[in-house]
Design brief:
- By secondary structure, this protein is mostly helical.
- It has one domain.
- 50% of the residues lie in helices and 8% in strands.
- It is built from three helices and three strands.
- Helix 1 runs antiparallel to helix 2.
- The longest helix has 29 residues.
- It is flat, with a radius of gyration of 19 Å.
- The two termini are 13 Å apart.
- The model has no long low-confidence stretch (mean pLDDT 83).
Length: 133
């Protein structure tokens, strides 16, 4: 997506369905994380090279799973809400609940109007006023 997008659901049955689906995905993520942790419990990476490789593979899978969850529309990256409508910030490539997005959008807008523009690590050539379109 190139611009800000807000996904809003108004019908009560669809809201319940959306929240239930997010809960199912959250449960599946927790179960999979638990499986990966249990699988790595008995491994001794300092004693065996094979165990070291397996621990690295499990850690990589956990990291990818956490990244997929954090960058999904299921959860707000700031407050962790799973029951709100979400807004996508195209510059940061992250989903925020509408309340958090508006709160931080106003903050960056105010700082830009005051002339306080700075550049971030992820956006070295983009002023802060453009992070929150």
């Amino acid at each position: 997506m190139r611009k800000k997008r807000t996904i809003s659901v108004r019908h009560p049955q669809l809201v319940r369905f959306r929240n239930a689906l997010r809960e199912v995905i959250s449960t599946a993520k927790r179960v999979e994380t638990r499986k990966l942790l249990d699988e790595g419990k008995g491994l001794r990476p300092t004693e065996s090279e094979a165990d070291g490789k397996r621990v690295w593979e499990l850690s990589d899978k956990q990291s990818k799973l956490a990244y997929a969850w954090d960058s999904s529309i299921c959860v707000c990256v700031l407050c962790g809400s799973r029951t709100c409508d979400m807004t996508f910030n195209s510059h940061m490539k992250e989903w925020f609940c509408v309340k958090c997005y508006e709160k931080y959008h106003r903050f960056y807008e105010r700082k830009a109007k005051e002339g306080e523009l700075w550049y971030g690590e992820d956006f070295p050539h983009t002023p802060s006023s453009e992070w929150w379109p």
